[in-house]
Amino acid sequence: MSISLSRPRALAFSLPAIIAILPFLGACFYIFRFSISADKGVIDGYSIQAYVDLMTPFFGRSVWLTLKLSFVATIIAMILAVPLAFLLTSLKSPLARRCLTVTILLPLILNLLVQAYGWILLLGPSGVLNSTLKGLGIIERPIFLLFNETGVLLGLIQTSLPLAVFPIVSSVRGLSQEHLEAASSLGASHWRTFVDVTVPLLRPGLVGAASIVFAFNASAFAIPLLLGGRRVQMMGVAIRDMISPLFNWSGAAAAGMILITLTLIVLVFASWLVRVTSEEVRG
Amino acid sequence: MRVGLLPTEGKSTYRFTVLFLATIGILISSLPVVVVTIMSFSASDNTGFPPPELSLRWYWEVIAMFTQEDASSAQSVVDSTVTSLLVAFIVMAISTLVCIPLAYALARGDRRIREGMELLFTLPLVFPLVILGIAFLLIAESLRLEIGIWRIVIPHVALVLPFVLRNCIGAMNGISVETEEAAVSLGASPLRAIWDVVIPLMRAGILAGLIFALIISFNEFTITFFMYTIDVSTLPIWMYSRTVSSLDPSTLALSVFIIVADVVLIVLVDKLIAGRANLF
Amino acid sequence: MNEPPEKVADDIMEKRKMNKNISRRHLLATSAGLATALAMPSLVRAQPLAGKELRLLTWSDNTGLAILDHIAKPFEERTGARVIADRTGSTSEMVAKLRAAGDRPQYDVITLAGVGAVELAGDGLLGKPDLNMLPNLADVDPRFRTGADGHGIGYLLWTGGLIYNTKTFQEPPTSYAQMWEETHKNRLFLPPSTWTDALDTIFATGKLLGGDGTNSAEAFAKLAELRDNILTFGENPAQLSELFRSDALDIGGVYAPAFYAAELNDPANSNMGATYDVDEGFFADLMYTITPKSKPGDDEVVHAFIDFTLDAEVQGIMAEAVLNGPVNQKAVMSEAAKASPFIIKPEQMGDKAIVHDKSFIAEVREDWINQYNQTLS
Questions:
Q1: Are B108 and A167 an interchain contact pair (Cβ–Cβ within 8 Å)?
Q2: What is the sign of the dihedral through the CA atoms of B193, B194, B198 and B200?
Q3: Which helix (H) or strand (E) holds A22?
Q4: Which of B3, B130, B277 sits opposite A240 (nearest CB)?
Q5: How close A53 gets to chain C, by Cα (Å)?
Q6: Residues C135, C165: one domain?
Q7: CATH label of the domain that carries residue C93
Q8: Domain at B74-245, CATH homologous superfamily
């Protein structure tokens, strides 16, 4: 092989990015150091008290709720993202493709306060949906889609959808046409091709996208605040409350470390899954 | 012609399911924006939906805000917009410049190192932003840094790295070693081969990364909320103090302006870098 | 050169005093000409603070906006100083930012709720304003002149009561007990745990049960009954206003009418009403202006600004704009504002007003916030 990357050159290529991420790693270390500080407001001494204080049923429920909502939101986001990626890659008109791309990116662009406001107009107790259903005589009392777990789920799906769609789009672009053509020329139905050929080929991309979406959702805090009406106590909200008004900064750091550890476990598991399955495919 | 993913003809359940789910996805993404956009054209003062009459009055109000604002007494919306744009472009440039060589090194290098590095560069996405924001703030204050706009640029670069790197790696995956070898065998130096062969092939991925960096930095709120100073502030911060105090249709009109600004930026970058429409 | 250091220090002090005297005379002159100045702005030529800058941190909600319009702008016109305002955050977010900045604050003047001033004073981050440079303080009700151990200067009285839907209630509710009515299930809001109003709510519940408000164990048990009745916590005042407008909420509290000056004037469209006339009482909290110990700006402009917030006219205008009680006893208010049931002047407080014992609140605060969260969300 004539193209081999010598170690010094690989290092030189990686160095700028490593420098760019250093301040972030510094911040991570700072958070870790704060989480084992003996003082709640400044870094001073060592203690695991912050972690011990978190061992309450309330915090436990918050962890469980965070994992549950992030997981469900991730599954639904993936179920919606795959068809969107298929649609996006098969659109022929560049204009249609651009419009669809921008539409999918919108939730990343628009201020969450304003989006939450849009949802209230639509799904609020006297929003468009409820008044329509009432007008049609289908319901008597309004159905509550906001300010509860449903509202948070909806918001999480919405904000994380772009993060799911675009990695899948690049995987779909990388799909080998031969495989698909072979399957279709053998007379396999669309569903069969999808299950037997497309999904296994896309699997690394799918797992990668899902793990990003999961991580992103697990750390959400504006969504539970605005669409959960504060009644859905996800960890992001709990961490914010500790920063202000409780000024329990070591506690916030410890809760942050726990959240990061849980998410990392999921990410490492996902990357292990990709490795195992891609080895299978290579067979 | 592409096969299999979305059949063009027929009434199969497969095609129906794919289109049905995609439609739901589109609705979830866009409905709040559609409602907000309609409301911004309302002629009335309050926010009853649907608006009884349409008008452009709130748009004129926003334009007046940009053109007639007296410089004193508040964070200026013009200054904030300029800062936001400046930050977004610097972040975009830095993150892309550092990610392209890294993506190349990872794609051609040791697989185990690659997995570790990918995980490392996913971390910024995982960290809860609130705690990250206060950590950055405490560090900047304790180091007594006077770095102006870089207060915001440095954390933003970290935040967008995962997106840019993923897109660059995705682009590298599609480029076979053989292409590069061919260039080298024709007498190009390895670096020359990267510049002339690999980077042009990576273009779509690079572009996607650029656009993600731009959008995320331009709209980032949580970390900026901790890091901004009274002199260096961004548009989302300005927008936040406005939305908290009043959610009238002029705020919605301003949101529509921001959406348009984002779309224009996306198209601009697309045209500049890709020339003939590569990304979408 | 060889003078003893004490002598040098004395000299400096002497010079400073002289400067202060001069500037005070300037200020007095300007405030004396205030009435004329308002009538004929072109006459204001003397701009004693021209070229100076003041960095102000205040709330992001409409109360902060009112400060810009009714305090910062006229102050600039009158003095020639430039006010740069940062209008982001709640009291606790301001405290977090100031704590993080430590001895390098960006701001000269901050307006915030009492608790915040007490916290920051406790950290030793605040300077003590020189009361001699605040001539308007003489007109302020003696109870509300200073606080936070002399670090905070009284600003306005924040008052909280019940907010209700005028379509549902023909007559204003007269007790917090209304919130427990079954008919308001899913049409009820409460203040978020992060706000002082949440502590007020716990207090009000305690009083409702016949205690003095500090009977928190009972109060939490009673509040727990509301758990499944709450539609939302009022984290965002504008969101609540939208929910009232669309007739999705009936009642909620303890919450401040301060956010809703416009809505309360127009109940036909907003459906919003507010009342302090509740059996268990309403809540009053003195808000402060404070100044950090190592502020970037200079003393003269800071004191001039703080003094200006206490000006009789400014206090009257602000009271009307944000429905807070003026602390200046000579506050100049319009007839409408005088008649407004939402603006509580110090002399109207009577025995219905509950003013918390700051040290008691400081003691229970953390515990109450946690319990409130755990009971209700």
A1: no
A2: negative
A3: helix A7-35
A4: B130
A5: 12
A6: no
A7: 3.40.190.10
A8: MetI-like (1.10.3720.10)
The one-letter code for the residue type at B165 is L
Q: Do the chains contact at A158 and B29, CB–CB below 8 Å?
A: yes
- Nearest residue to C122 via CA among C105, C99, C104: C99
C189 with C299, same domain: the answer is no
Q: Which residues of chain C have pLDDT under 50?
A: 1-44
Looking at 1.20.140.10, 1.20.58.760, 1.10.274.10, 1.10.3720.10, the CATH number of the domain A56-282 comes to 1.10.3720.10
Residues 51-70 of chain B whose Cβ lies under 8 A from any Cβ of chain A: none
Instruction: Please tell me what DSSP assigns to residue A119.
Output: H
CA distance from start to end of chain B: 18
Res. A4 pLDDT band, cuts 50 70 90: low
- Give yes or no for a contact between C243 and C249, defined as CB atoms under 8 angstroms apart: yes
Q: Report residue B80 CA to chain centroid gap.
A: 17
Q: Which residues of C touch A229 (CB under 8 A)?
A: 230-233, 235
- pLDDT tens, residue by residue, B193-221: 888 888 888 887 788 888 889 888 998 98
CB contact under 8 A, B22 and A86: yes
Distance separating alpha carbons of residues B145 and B142, to the nearest angstrom: 8
End-to-end CA distance of chain C: 69
Nearest to A72 by CA among A218, A224, A222, A238: A218
SS (H, E, C) chain C: CCCCHHHHHHHHHHHHHHHHHHHHHHHHHHHHCHHHHHHCHHHCCCCCCCCCEEEEECCCCHHHHHHHHHHHHHHHHHHCCEEEEECCCCHHHHHHHHHHHCCCCCCCEEEEEHHHHHHHHHCCCECCCCHHHCHHHHHECHHHCEECCCCEEEEEEEEEEEEEECCCCCCCCCCHHHHHCHHHCCCEEECCCCCHHHHHHHHHHHHHCCCCCCCHHHHHHHHHCCCCCEEEECCCHHHHHHHHHCCCCCEEEEECHHHHHHHHCCHHHHCEEEECCCCCCEEEEEEEEECECCCCCCHHHHHHHHHHHCCHHHHHHHHHHHCCEECECCCCCCHHHHHCCCCCCHHHCCCCEECCCHHHHHHHHHHHHHHHHHHHC
Looking up tokens 């993060």 gives A163
| Interchain CB contact of A275 with C (< 8 Å) | no
- Kindly state the average pLDDT of the residues B157-173: 87
Asked if residue C93 lies in contact with residue A244, where contact means CB atoms within 8 angstroms, the answer is yes
**C5 within domain boundaries:** no
What tokens does A255 get?
Answer: 């809760």
- The DSSP 8-state label assigned to residue A143 in this structure reads P
pLDDT range class, residue A279, cuts 50, 70, 90: low
Residues of B in contact with C82 (CB under 8 A): 72
Q: What angle do CA B119, B125, B128 make, to 5 degrees?
A: 125
- Please indicate, yes or no, whether residues C249 and C214 belong to a single structural domain of this protein: yes
Q: Mean pLDDT throughout B153-176?
A: 87
- pLDDT tens-digit map of B35-92: 888 888 888 776 667 777 888 888 888 888 777 655 444 567 888 889 999 999 999 9
Give the B:C interface size as CB pairs under 8 Å.
77
Interface of B with A in 203-242 (CB under 8 A): 205, 208, 212, 215-216, 219, 221-222, 236, 239-240
Report the C-alpha gap between B145 and B140 in whole angstroms: 6
Mean pLDDT of B221-244: 86
- For residue B202, what pLDDT is reported? 82
